[in-house]
Amino acid sequence: MKTKIALCEDNENFRESLKQFIADTPDFSVIASLSSAQDIIAAITENTPDLILMDIDMPGMTGIDATRLVKSHFPNVQVIILTVYEDDDKIFKAILAGATGYLLKKTPPTRILESILEIREGGASMSASIVKRVLSFFNSHTTSVQSNEYTLSQRELGILKCLVNGDSYKMIADNCDISIGTVRSHINNIYKKLHINSKSEAVAKAIKERLVQ
């Protein structure tokens, strides 16, 4: 089954170039190509994508607001932010809105497709420079980690940190020397304890509430 992609990007040349590249790649299909996010819910309701590549700055509605809107209607639809911006404020606002990935537009198209596959396999995807900023955020707040009010076990806290770092289920399994099934079981327990339903929500909550260090 092909991975269904929706594009939401106001730069027509960039959008069409990316659309053609994805359409020419086996196992991928573009089911929507939008120049703004104004009607994104209506555009994806009948044929819901697996993942949306979302610009940040668009007329009418920002990509961050659109991401929040999409996740409220379709929690299982993943969103990768594609942007020229690399500042901390936009990065964390996008993550808190529910984005699973944050890539710069200068990222090669082949790498964008690899990122989509990583997310489909349970990971999160960010440019190396973005990952450094996320890790720097955590390192600068190590003395401010909140108390473990959610009663997460040490194993669960470790796995939550792995999710924040963008590790896939397979990477977590290998690093922790446990099976992928056990990883999924731990993640389900994390979701229940944090009262959330998705990986992006887990990452957002971990960042917002400083649950890991």
Q: How would you describe this structure to a colleague?
A:
With 213 residues, the chain is of the alpha/beta class. 51% of the residues lie in helices and 14% in strands. The protein has 10 helices and 6 strands. It has helices at 12-23, 40-45, 63-73, 88-97, 109-120, 128-139, 154-164, 169-176, 180-194, 199-209, and strands spanning 3-8, 28-34, 51-54, 78-83, 101-104, 125-126. Strands 2-1-3-4-5-6 form a 6-stranded parallel sheet, sandwiched between helices. Helix 3 (63-73) packs parallel to helix 4 (88-97), helix 7 packs across helix 9 (180-194) and helix 8 (169-176) packs across helix 9. The longest helix is centred in the last third of the chain and has 15 residues, at 180-194. It is globular and about 50 Å long.
Please provide the count of β strands.
Answer: 6
Low-confidence stretches: none
Strand content: 5-15%
Number of helices: 10
What do we call the CATH topology of the largest domain?
A: Rossmann fold
Order of helices and strands: EHEHEHEHEHEHHHHH
* Major pleated sheet: 6 strands, parallel
CATH architecture of the largest domain: 3-Layer(aba) Sandwich
Mean pLDDT, all residues: 84
CATH class of the largest domain: Alpha Beta
Structural class: alpha/beta
Specify the CATH homologous superfamily of the largest domain.
Response regulator
Shape: globular
Read across the widest sheet, the strand sequence of neighbours is 2-1-3-4-5-6
Distance between the termini: 39 Å
Radius of gyration: 17 Å
Domain module tally: 2
Helical residue percent band? 40-55%
